[in-house]
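[Automated response] Your request has been received and processed.

Submitted sequence:
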Amino acid sequence: MENPQILLIGNDPALKAEFDAAIEGVRRWHPLVHHAHDRRQGVELARSRRPDIVVVESPSDCDALRSLATELSVAAPECQVVAAYRRDQFEGEQSESQFLIEAMRSRVADFLRRPLSSSELQETLDRTLNRAQRDSARMGKVLSFVSNKGGAGKSTISVNTAVALAMRHPGEVLLVDTSLQLGVAAMMLDVAPRTTIVDAIRESHRLDETLVRQLAVQSDCGLHVLAAPPDAVEASHVDDEGFSRILTLARRAYRYVVVDTYPMLDAVIMAALDLSDLVYVVFHATVPSVVGNAHFIDVLRKVGVSQGRQRVVLNYNFPKVTGSLRVEDVVERLGREVDHVFPYQKRLLTALNTGQPYALKAGRRFGFGKSLHRLVEEIESLPGANGSSVEFRAQAGGRVGGEVLA
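Generated structure:
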């Protein structure tokens, strides 16, 4: 997190000038700073930008600060709120220490005294961002599977990955089908969901970790599935704001959240990418696919998915014939290594038609099963990818059975 996102909320021009001057002297961190002039704009930016830290111009009224901090915690649950205040703003019976105590009870994580200094800002960023990194490590991991065109085998690999993870961690893996126009995950798992991602959007006013788990359907292998809606009309209700909230709550309720996407970079898919720990880019071994994928990888980088969060997945989803591209050919065209190679497996067709994912019976020693095992092991090796889903909810302050976990 060398390039954290910081949102500054305040209508005092002096605050922005102080912050800009102080940030120049900060070492280690090279933040991307957004500025909102008022509370409403600040909450909307927090919802869309998902900042690591929100620095707010602190009112002397703790009730107003508490209300703003609560709104920010709903809009961007992972952000750390820092209050910037002046010592001379306290009058009457309220003291600085009383204000600090009340502010900490109001979800404020840290404080900055004005006028801001580089040294104090450095110390605050060190404390707050290190705390944010520890909190993030305790959250469930989000893995998104993307492609720049249909037919690459993205859904096949994402569903089988989710199944393989669920076999190792029953009840702690959620598959979210965001191929909203024509989701196939439920059919591939032979489940008939009574609720879908649209129901989660409609219940957004009361959505919490427990409700996310209740809206997901469970497959026989222990995988939970939040399915795509049955038709495109219902899909229009899903927006990036609601989807970001679903994913944020899901990663508090599950150890792993696997997202199957639609081959289009719309607002919903962008929200998934922003929240993903790893993004698996799936393509198959034809020249048009490889060339298109080279451009697609560059686009992902430009929209904020760094190479460190990308994994390139070459899927041989048809038999090799004379003239087929070799892995070496693909590497040369992409200008980077291929992270995972899935060989052709004819039994995948039977698995698709019967709703019995190949991962249920796949071996680990060769072929598709070996590649799948390697990918799953990579996911399990992510920092913080341990502990039960209940522990994730407890550490994040979530709800279990309607009770708040401290």
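Summary generated for your ticket: The chain has a mean pLDDT of 86. The two ends are 27 Å apart (CA to CA).
If you did not submit this request, please reply to this message.
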